[in-house]
Amino acid sequence: MFPRPIQDSSRSRQLMYKVALPISLVIWLLPMIAIVATAGRSLSDLNYGNYWGIPSEWAFVENFSAVFGSSSIGVYLLNSVIITLPSIVGALFLSTLAGAGLALYKFRGRFLILALFIAGNFVPFQILMIPVRQLTLDLGVYDTYWGVILFQIAFQTGFCTFFMRNFIADLPFELVEAARAEGVSEWNILIHVIVPLVRPALAALAVLEFTFIWNDFFWPLILIQSDELRPITLGLTTLKGQYISSFNLLAAGSLIAALPPVMMFFAMQRHFIAGLTLGASKG
């Protein structure tokens, strides 16, 4: 079922692996290398077409200083935090409730409900653009933090529910039955039995959702108009001039925008891996 460890493979396969691995790694890292190199180039280098060669002068300090000096990138980063964190909390809360209900209780139509959650992930967001924008206008939350937060929660809950339902369904149901026999309420079973057991799954899902929501460009573009409310993904567009594109500043701003998800991943790495591998050893 699982791939054979490379140590147990033939010598020819091991040789192919040792050759293919660094090549694949370089190809995979090539865009990031290009962005880092561009962030350290001067605009004159880029105007002369020096995209891949050694820069005539390194301008990391100047470019990053220009990003903070020519744009409100600090405000954009704060806006991203304001949008992302409540969206993660809301999506995880609702998906834990829905996942527990679909996994622990047997009722007619539960598989249809789960199918609806899954099907929602396959709906292209582009076809929902106009009705969602109109709905935010009708609710009075257009061009506000809450407009983006509510719809991020709504659109992310489907995937999160599918994720959480599968983890909760793998838990030993005897623990729930024992708690019920002791007269523990369903809410306390969820809080004191289910949630501690799925904590690694919640951590893994939080990392994924942080990346998804932080990097989202589409919904903030549709639902936010004011410059002071823009998240970092929209704020980077202010670094693009009307007649000339300062790709070195855009690259530097992109690295700044990518830093929080990377920090989040490394901070939660142990929990993230534990959540993804939870139940992998089960037969």
Furnish the topology, listing elements before pairings.
Elements: H1 11-39, H2 43-47, H3 60-70, H4 73-104, H5 110-120, H6 129-139, H7 145-169, H8 173-181, H9 186-197, H10 199-214, H11 218-223, H12 232-235, H13 247-267, H14 269-277
Helix pairs in contact: 1-13, 3-13, 4-7, 4-10, 5-7, 7-10, 8-9, 10-14
Class per helix and strand makeup: mainly alpha
Give the percentage of residues in beta strands.
under 5%
Largest sheet: none
Helix content: over 70%
**Count of distinct strands:** 0
**Inertia-based shape:** globular
Mind telling me the C-alpha Rg?
Answer: 24 Å
> What is the CA-CA span between the terminal residues?
11 Å
| Tally of separate helices | 14
What's the overall average pLDDT, rounded?
A: 85
Unreliable stretches (pLDDT < 50, length at least 5) are 279-283
Topology order in helix (H) and strand (E) letters: HHHHHHHHHHHHHH
What structural keywords apply?
0% strand; 71% helix; mainly alpha; 283 residues; single chain; globular
Give a structural overview.
With 283 residues, the chain is mainly alpha-helical. The chain has helices at residues 11-39, 43-47, 60-70, 73-104, 110-120, 129-139, 145-169, 173-181, 186-197, 199-214, 218-223, 232-235, 247-267, 269-277. Helix 3 (60-70) crosses helix 13 (247-267), helix 5 packs across helix 7 and helix 8 (173-181) runs antiparallel to helix 9 (186-197). It is globular. The chain starts with 10 loop residues before the first helix and ends in a 6-residue tail after the last helix.
